[in-house]
Every structure is written in C-alpha cells, then in structure tokens.
Amino acid sequence: MSRDATDELIVALAQGVRPVTPVRSLRCQVAAVAAVSLALSLALVGERGLRPPGPELLLGPTPFALMALGLALAGLGAVTAALALARPGRERTGWSAVTVAVLGLFGAVGTASLALVASPPGSEAVWGGLVEVPCVVFSLILSLPAALFVTYLAARAAPLRPGATAFFAASGATALGTLAAHLICRTPGAWHVVTTHAATPLLGGLLMTTPALRLLRNWAWRA
Amino acid sequence: MAAAQRGDAVAYESLLRELRPSLQGFIRRQISNDAAVEDIVQTVLLSLHRARHSYRSEHLFEPWLWAIARNALTDFQRKRSRRNGREEPLPDENALPDGFLAPSSSDTRAGRDQVALSRDLEHALSRLPASQQEAVLLLHLEGLSVIEAAVRAHVSPGALKARVHRAYRALRTLLEEEVPS
Question: Which site among A42, A56, A210, B38 is 20 to 30 Å from B139 CA-CA?
C-alpha cells in the first residue's frame, strides 16, 4: 500500500472514532477473580468442612498450609500474568507474575516435601493410582468459573499474545480451583496434597489452554 | 490518547499523524522494503485503533504503543519466514536454458541470434507435453512462485517441480539438437 493509503487510513480511523471505556485496572480485575475464587472456596469449606483433622492443619508451616499458600500464589500469579499479557505494555508485570507463580508453587512443593521427608514414614502409603483421579477431576470442575471469568476479562482487553494469555488463564484458574479442592480434599496421604495438588494446575494448563484460546479469540473478536 | 478514548476525532487524527514518522522509523530499522514498512505502519494503526480501550491514562503511552508495534512487526516477520520456508528455490540444474528470455541486447547480430534462439526455444517448448509447458509458462512467463503455480495447475508443489525439472531436461536435449553450436 502507498503512503497515501496510510493518510486515508488515518482519516478514516479518526472519522470513525467512538468513545470507549478504558479497561478496569489490573489490580481491580485480579481482586475480582480472587474474590470469586475465595467465595467458592469458603462456600465449599462451609458446606463440606476443612480437610480432617480440621483448622489445626492451617496452623503453622504444615505441608497442607504450605500447599494452600503455594496454590494461592500460583493461581493469583498466573491470573495476573494472563490479564497483564492481555494489555499492551504490561508484559513486564506479566512475566514478573509468572515468576511469582512458579516460585510460589515450587517453593511450596519443595518446603512441603522436605517437611514430609523429615516426618515418620507411612504417610505416602495410599498415594498414587485411581485414588487421585476424582480429586483432579473435581479440581478441574471447580476451576471452570475462574477460567471463564479470566478468559472473558482478558478477551475484553487486547490480548496480543493469545496463546500465553490462554495458558496462564487456564493454569491460574486451575490453581485456584485446586486450592478450593485442596481445602476440602478427603483423599488420604500427605504426599497426595503435595504432589497431585501441585501437578493439577499444570495439567489444567495443558488441558484447558486450547478451549480457553478459542473462547479468547471468539470473545475478543466480538469485543 | 485519553481524548481519543472520549471520541475526540481531531485529537485522534493529530495523534495518529504524530505517531506515523516514529512508527516508520522504528519499523524501517528492521525492514528495508518501503512498501512493507507502510503495510506494517497501517497494521499498527489498525491494531492501535482496535486496542485503544486497553490504554489506561495512569500508565505511560509509549510502552503501550511500542508493544503493539513490536507485535505487528513480529507477526509480519513470522509470516514472511513461514512463506519463505514453504517456497524452495529450484536447484541449479533446473536453471533456465540460456536464451530462454526474449533478447534485450541492442547489438544487432547478438539480437538476431537471441531471436533465433527464442524461436528455437518456442518451437522446443511446443513439443513438450501440455502439463510441462504449463509448468514452465506459469513459473517463468507469469513469474508465479512454486506454490502459486502449483495451485493454478491443480497439482502439489512437488509434482510441479518434477514437471519443470523434466521440462528443462527435455528442452535442453531439444535445443542441443536444434542449435548444435
């Protein structure tokens, strides 16, 4: 196209410009997603009760509490990354959030594993096999509201990297869904809460990125 | 930009005009082709227009703008390398026989020789099977790429290249018979 065509394009864009509402701040959107996930987690805990033996699991640096913290960091970090990468110029915030998410999750896994290794043997006896499946499926189901919400918010911004945005939206939402499942999980075995609950966000990222990407493109097109 | 978000057409046009030289300079540092530079500038302007709601006035404008520009440039380069990767140059053995193109020299004797050779070539070409003729004509007279020519001939690029290769071999043989020198 020629230089004149660029001039014509500028005139056409300016003539067609309509008022638009700027997207909400990143902090506000992350807070909204966190509120939805927290409400879901509290509702579940209220309905089914905390993982036995109960609140004492959250007192002190137990593997359960460490994993809850790790999942919260991973979830909020990945959600922040997805929403930041959907805004031009906020990539640095996005990649910093990814770092927080990764360090949070793997830091929690590492610390919890060390605590378990130091504890008396026997806690890993029932870990592995089909016993993990219902927990993973339940976590994935619980992540759907947050996944849809984050994808919608990202699509309403301007996702220049839709693949990365969809992956972080999917894995962040799965981490938040897993956090809700983690709090009420009845699957026995201390290693279960460390390994399966840590792996589920990654699995969710792998499984849900493609649907999230399709939704993102579909909603972004309509936005 | 904040004025443009409120729908101020004059401010928006003035902003876009002001941005244009910076965008051209930024893109020209990566791409030397002027037409491609203008294409990318237009893509950036369109992306900027579509994404204008994603700018928030409490943040700097430049990182927002350059993120859009970088993205458009990366997209362009990715598409170009993908296109180049799909199109393979024909091997040297498939190079056009000498004198295939019409004579361009003003030298009379050389020009006459070239015309004679072109007639020989035309004659040799007419003796090829229709599918091979078509392949040569699409690639060298119409100047299409292998992919475009393959689409036009309703064959795969590999089949088209095979036809061209066979055509060149046949042409070489026919021309050597007709022009022994």
Answer: B38
